[in-house]
Specification:
Blueprint: H1 11-26, H2 29-32, H3 36-48, H4 52-65, H5 72-86, H6 98-112, H7 123-143, H8 146-152, H9 158-175
Helix pairs in contact: 3-4, 3-9, 4-5, 4-7, 5-6
Length: 177
């Protein structure tokens, strides 16, 4: 494996690390969910602790909320959320209360049958429940983790460099549009 680039060789990565360190020192989960490096590190941590479905669902709903409801992508995302996170026994089934789950599943079914229109705010309760779970369980443990300590000490790992490069590549693609 080639050596990792030093932070002085990559000013973008250095800035991303600094932003990540600032977010982590504040302990603000909401802001951390919008920082690519922090999000990547948290996702890897949650995968190791077998609860990444919460973060994946939260981000999938965020993506859905940014998608035009009249686009084909919207319906596809809605169906993926249903199959992947909400249906009983799904691969990444989330733990939310039954009333919230039933309400969302019913609305998705009506949209799938073209008999209804979905109100995105109905996902707010599910997102709030998931956010609270992440905040009380995963986030506090992540802040004590070795991965977080590496970031706070300015040590980079291969996964951080990989995450940074991935998000730099994505931003180049989206900025060309």
């Amino acid at each position: 494996m080639p050596p990792l680039p030093s932070l002085s060789e990559n000013p973008e990565l250095k800035m991303e690390m600094k932003n990540c360190q600032n977010l982590l020192s504040k302990g603000d989960l909401h802001d951390a969910l919008h920082n690519p490096l922090t999000l990547h590190s948290l996702k890897k941590f949650m995968a190791r602790t077998f609860c990444e479905e919460n973060l994946l669902f939260y981000k999938a709903v965020e993506d859905l909320k940014r998608t035009d409801p009249n686009s084909p992508e919207f319906k596809t995302l809605l169906e993926e959320i249903q199959k992947e996170y909400l249906k009983q026994g799904s691969n990444h089934e989330i733990n939310i209360n039954g009333k919230t789950r039933a309400k969302i599943l019913k609305a998705i079914e009506e949209v799938s049958d073209d008999t209804g229109k979905i109100e995105l705010k109905m996902f707010d309760e599910a997102q709030n429940q998931i956010f609270m779970m992440i905040s009380t369980n995963s986030w506090s443990a992540f802040l004590q983790s070795e991965e977080c300590k590496k970031i706070m000490e300015g040590r980079r790992s291969a996964s951080m460099v990989e995450a940074h490069n991935h998000f730099v590549d994505i931003s180049k693609l989206t900025s060309k549009k």
